[in-house]
Amino acid sequence: MYVMQDEAGAIALMIVSLWCLGSWPALFNLLERKGRIPMHTYLDYTFANYGVAVLFAFTLGDIGPDTPEAPNFLTQLFQENGPSVAFALAGGLALCLGNISLQYSLAFVGISLTEVVSASVAVVLGTTVNYFLDDGLNRASILFPGVLCFLVAVVLGSFCHASNVADIQAKLKAAEASAQTLEDNGSSFKNSEASAPLLINHPSNLETHSKYCADPEIGGSAATGAEYFESLESHRAIKVKGKSVLFGLGIAFFTGLCCAAFSPLFNLATNDQFHLLKPDVPHLVVYTTFFYFSTAFLICSVLVNVYFLYHPVLGIPKSSLSMYCQDREGRHIAVIAGLLCGIGNGFQFMGGQAAGYAAADAVQALPLVGTLWGIVLFREYYGSSGKTYSLLIAMLFMFATAVVMLVASSMPRDGSRT
């Protein structure tokens, strides 16, 4: 079994994990906006994610010497480690429910705000629990100021989102004034309030809508502005028109609670802080825990998403297993998302076992990566005001500072204070 014992190597794993875990939600968001049924995407993602866990188990978890203190993966499958397995399974269930809710939150409030809310809740709660589970392994004088930076980033993120909404509403009024000149052609811009959520969640639509209002050939058609946004809404998989942004924030908060739970549960599975294992039974190694963790994730994901195939919510079209098997469009993107998530989780757990799970929670600074993807892929904050951009830069700076501080708080698990 390969064991990561080098602190610098553990930090490198955390950095790669941060990039992976911050990138895969952007691919989910991309597929949803293109109209792919979320359950199809999630099932593809799940199978790819599980494949990574199996690969880790049979390679990194089964190479090298097989000792009583650190048995290989196959050896541990037949040991009496039920309590630790139960914690690993519970962690997988928590992450699965969190990631399922995350994809719906992405549709309601966008990738930037979803990751700001969920990641910050996960870090504040999860990091604190992991610190005490690891018996103060990480440097508290650096760790908790880093957590405070996450909280500051949350506040800045909230102000940034509010400022961006105000910018969009101002542009709506400008577009409405422009459209007044087309009233004689029967193309007045109506129901701007009802259309605002679409623009808030899809800032790139504002430019398209402005062109629509300014073009007499298009604007002069029989379709009204409301009908135009109905056609926009019809292209996406999850219907958000008329839904409260607070509903999306509530989903994002639930996502954060689930993400706050899975890392401490994984920590308990690998280190048995409650001493539930028999004295002669070794602790679960990272790769065995990751395997059980991902198995629970797989089972929960299949059950929930197959149910949603036949009983969809939020206006998602009804589907079936046969339709899922035939839906190959975007499958490669969903598989890449699953691979990124699996690698990111595996590296997070390897780094956490080597340098403390509280420090490894630095990878929950997903907005640092997710916001960049939101700007590049989805043009979030496109054409916003200087105030919004200032808040955005400040938020990203605080997240970057938090990551540096959490990583800097790491120490070797062998008890060394160097």
From TrEMBL:
Originating organism? Physcomitrium patens (Spreading-leaved earth moss)
Query: What name goes with this protein?
Result: Ureide permease
Name the domain of life: Eukaryota
GO cellular component, alphabetical, reads: membrane
Record-annotated membrane-spanning stretches: 12-30, 42-61, 81-100, 107-133, 139-162, 245-266, 286-310, 331-350, 356-377, 389-408
Keyword list (alphabetical) reads: ATP-binding, Membrane, Nucleotide-binding, Transmembrane, Transmembrane helix, Transport
Entry keyword Transport: yes
Keyword Acetylation (UniProt): no
Q: Where in the cell is it found?
A: Membrane
Membrane topology, from the record: Multi-pass membrane protein
Family membership noted in the UniProt record = Belongs to the plant ureide permease (TC 2.A.7.19) family.
Q: Which GO terms describe its molecular function?
A: ATP binding; transmembrane transporter activity
